[in-house]
Amino acid sequence: MRYVYLDYAATTPVDPRVIEKMLPFFREHYGNPSSVHALGKMAKDAIESARYDVGQLIHAEASEVIFTSGATEANNLALKGAASLYQSKGKHIITLKTEHLSVLDTCRELEKQGFAVTYLTPEKNGILSIEKFEAALRKDTMLVSLMHVNNETGVIQDIEKIANITSQRGILFHTDATQSVGKIALDVTKIPVDLLSFSGHKIYGPKGIGALYLRRKPRVHVAAQLHGGGQERGIRSGTLPTHQIVGLGEACRILKNERAELEQHLQICREKFLKGLHSISFKVNGDIEKCFPGILSISFEHWKARDLVERLKTLAFGIGSACLSKGTEPSHVLKALGLADSQCANTIRVSFGRFTTLDEIDFAIDQFTARG
Ligand code: PMP
């Protein structure tokens, strides 16, 4: 039976080139990178080479990259670590209601510790209004966390504008760039972002590895959240998983060369898919002109998302985001865009990627429209 994967925003398959690069680090080069012998040194060199490739993808120095287990950990480390160190500057944090739960729940945790958090509501098109943002700034605002590309709608926030405002006021700026790194242009030498998180498994790398970018000039610090052997400059203790890091590095190196081509391919996929659905009544969530082309959030007029999942078993697509599909609660992202519960229940997320073919899009269109 044919099966078409349209859930790249949840996770991507690992690129075969990445797998090849990882394999020797299971078999031969298995030394602990902290060991002093030749095998250890080999692992350490491979990690430093990967660190360089990871940095290059976002135009960062290798020394600005801290490896974590993924974006959840990177977001936790960024927010808790910065809040802890910079609280003397103020205890107010600003974020957006459409952030990933790894940011929102971390903020709720910080509230319990005495921080005040403003959760801004985006406009109906998903974008944060700059005026609303400026109005929310306070004298004691210490940190702003705003994601680059939304994982449910693909909406792109103007992080450059926001980061320019925060840097002028001496406020730290963190962005969850899990859905944007390697997918849309992102250059930390042009955007004054202080902290940036992302994950390997959204960019054709392995699961269980991610990174936090930590600006060096001007220098930004975070308080460690994991203590132990002092790896990663004492910021994130734990034996470094060489194979995972090598995989992430290779995934980043490939995207550095192929990003523009991928973006074009995704645009073609999205256009074709939307055209193919013309006979069905639906609405795209988020301002399509300001969305990453790899993610489409669609609300059908007459179809329930869960019924579609049941009936279209040959297609893999999401309802809300994979991380949220544990329950029946309507998506907090769609609700923040003003959708009613019934509209949320009629919403699916389709996401395309490197291995999506136009033939697969045709197949998916046939599946959807056969029910129309
Ligand atoms: N942020 C965003 C925007 C995401 O899409 C995800 C993954 N769904 C995460 C953070 C968390 O990433 P991970 O599961 O790799 O920790």
SSE blueprint and pairings:
Blueprint: E1 4-5, H1 16-22, H2 24-27, H3 38-57, E2 65-68, H4 71-86, E3 92-96, H5 101-112, E4 116-120, H6 130-136, E5 141-145, H7 159-169, E6 172-176, E7 195-199, E8 210-214, H8 242-276, E9 282-284, E10 295-300, H9 305-311, E11 315-316, H10 332-336, H11 341-345, E12 347-351, H12 358-370
Helix pairs in contact: 1-8, 3-8, 4-5, 8-12
Which keywords apply here?
2 domains, alpha/beta, 12 strands, binds 4'-deoxy-4'-aminopyridoxal-5'-phosphate, Aspartate Aminotransferase, domain 2, 3-stranded antiparallel beta sheet, 372 residues
Please, could you describe this protein's structure?
The chain is α/β, with parallel strands linked by helices and 372 residues long. The chain folds into 2 domains: 4-12 and 259-369, Aspartate Aminotransferase, domain 1 (Alpha-Beta Complex); 16-254, Aspartate Aminotransferase, domain 2. 38% of the residues lie in helices and 14% in strands. The chain has helices at residues 16-22, 24-27, 38-57, 71-86, 101-112, 130-136, 159-169, 242-276, 305-311, 332-336, 341-345, 358-370, and strands at residues 4-5, 65-68, 92-96, 116-120, 141-145, 172-176, 195-199, 210-214, 282-284, 295-300, 315-316, 347-351. α7 links the parallel β5 and β6. α3 (38-57) packs parallel to α8, α4 (71-86) packs parallel to α5 and α8 crosses α12 (358-370). The longest helix has 35 residues, at 242-276. The structure holds 4'-deoxy-4'-aminopyridoxal-5'-phosphate. 4'-deoxy-4'-aminopyridoxal-5'-phosphate binds at residues 70-72, 100, 102, 147, 151, 176, 178-179, 199, 201, 210, 321, 323.
